[in-house]
Amino acid sequence: MHLKPEQLNKLCAIAINAATEAGHYISTRANKAVRVELKQSGTTDGDTVSGGSTLASQVVTEVDLMSQQIILKHLTPTLETFDLGLLTEESVDNCSRFAKDYFWCVDPLDGTLPFTEGKPGYAVSIALLTNTGEALVGVVFDPVRKSLYHAIKQQGAFKNYEKIIVHARSDVFSFITDRGFITHPGFRKIKAQVKQYMYAIGYSKFKQIDYGGAAMNAIWVMENSPACYFKLPKASIGGGSIWDFAATTCIFKELGLSVSDFGGNKLKLNSKETTFMNRDGVIYASDAKTSGFIQKLTVKF
């Protein structure tokens, strides 16, 4: 089956409705007591369990699960109508993403950890991908600011339905990172190198943002240009999963911003081996030059 532009538009509208309804629900639960549990990483009876090696990847709440139910209420009818597969964080991977030409990729509450702490940086993230891992539709809803971001391949990227224009600040370079990376043994040296790079390309002020989930971290790269956000390759399970990066990959591609792995290759958004991204790492950058600089960091660490 080949999806036509008008079909992509319809599916994007459905994803927007799903993300918006889920996002508004999440906002009603913000700063309130919620039940928090930890996922387990590994496999069970051949099924991948989604918990990674970091706290951020292991935390799940009743809000994650209800958000997923709201989203699936919108998306489930499209599975038969458009012959789509489905991959969503809080359900077992049924591998329909390999059997179908296209599949939904859903993170019902990306940034669960900041959500439980009452901090900004969480979002709803929904993408439509081909079974080769190309993101055709990307939708992100920020419940804190009630901001909607969406993109459709070859149709542009939008914030609250207005076309996004990326503006570079005159003197500030933003270093956006996961809080877990701060404990990395090479973090101080890496941060120092990022600062050196910043000065070398003509920026005098350094801003660090380290409290968001993957979806909002990528959005903040876009909104705080020049900026970067990356996750180093590592042996342990983690580094985010497909659902953490699929929607923002579509948005970045439509804006001409740089998103890749540490080899400079496109992200593997439908690997048969794992949903995790730890083997190859992830880089979001406001330009190709900055991405190239980040790729070289793996030589030293």
Descriptive overview:
- There is one protein chain.
- The chain is built from nine helices and 16 strands.
- It has a seven-stranded mixed β-sheet, sandwiched between helices. It has a five-stranded mixed β-sheet with strand order 13-12-14-16-15, sandwiched between helices. Strands 1-4 form a two-stranded antiparallel ribbon.
- It folds into two domains: 5-163, Fructose-1,6-Bisphosphatase, subunit A, domain 1 (Fructose-1,6-Bisphosphatase, Chain A, domain 1); 172-299, D-Maltodextrin-Binding Protein, domain 2.
- Residues 41-49 have low confidence and may be disordered.
- Helix 1 packs antiparallel against helix 3 and helix 7 (214-223) runs parallel beside helix 8 (242-255).
- A hairpin with a 2-residue loop joins strand 2 (41-44) and strand 3.
- It is 35% helix and 26% strand.
- The protein is globular.
- It has 301 residues and is of the alpha+beta class.
- Keywords: Hydrolase, Magnesium, Metal-binding.
- It comes from Saccharicrinis carchari.
- GO terms for molecular function: inositol monophosphate 1-phosphatase activity; metal ion binding.
Keywords:
Fructose-1,6-Bisphosphatase, Chain A, domain 1; 35% helix; 16 strands; metal-binding; Fructose-1,6-bisphosphatase; single chain; Inositol_monoP_metal-BS; D-Maltodextrin-Binding Protein, domain 2; hydrolase; seven-stranded mixed β-sheet; 2 domains; 301 residues; 9 helices; alpha+beta; five-stranded mixed β-sheet
